[in-house]
Amino acid sequence: MARAMLGMWEEAASDLHVASKLDYDEEIGSALKRVEPNARKIEEHRRKYERLRKERELERNERQRQQQKAEAQVQEALSAFIDGQVIGIHSTSEVETKLNAATRASRLVILYFTATWCGPCRFISPLYTSLAAKYCKVVFLKVDIDEARDVAARWNISSVPTFFFIRNGKEVDKVVGADKSTLERKIAQYAG
Q1: d(Cα 16, Cα 73) in Å, to the nearest integer?
Q2: Of 39, 89, 121, 178, which is the active-site residue?
């Protein structure tokens, strides 16, 4: 009875069961009737607590798994880029892959359409390469319209050089022509 008074319901129920087997009387029976419901409630609460603890643990593990997966995707996306260098593009699927990777890595992409026969393109290409070295966190892609006609058609290229500024998979700006100052200014604007 002392254990029941102290709130130790399970121990009190166990002691009362033992006592009732040894010498059963009305006093033990009535005490057992008062103690057993509390002991059952405690056991129910313990099971409920254990179930909730397991659910929380599963949820925490799932969140950690998703976070690790997201980090792995970002690392994979970052590994697709070579910081400080211009990446040549040869197909539509390659453009899509790089744009998706840049979106996952939250990076600005500059898509430069050029041609080997284009004089202004040859004029601005060294600047584009130096800007790639200067802005390492920006993805610089280069597409030769004669090599990748499907990419040029998809982007509706009518003149070269053309520069598209893409963030999160969406075109945010465009520069047509070999204007060095405009190109540098827009890269600085969107890269910062």
Answers
A1: 61
A2: 121
**Both tokens of residue 70?**
């997201």
Instruction: Give every CB contact of residue 40 below 8 A, 6+ residues apart in sequence.
Output: none
Rg (CA), the chain: 35
Q: How far apart are CA 138 and CA 51, in angstroms?
A: 48
Residue 25 has pLDDT above 90, yes or no: no
121 is catalytic: yes
User: With 70 as the cut, is the pLDDT of residue 145 above it?
Assistant: yes
Please indicate whether residue 136 is annotated as part of the active site.
Answer: no
Active-site entry in 35, 95, 118, 143: 118
Per-residue pLDDT, 103: 85
The pLDDT of residue 7 is 54
Distance CA 123, CA 98 (A): 26
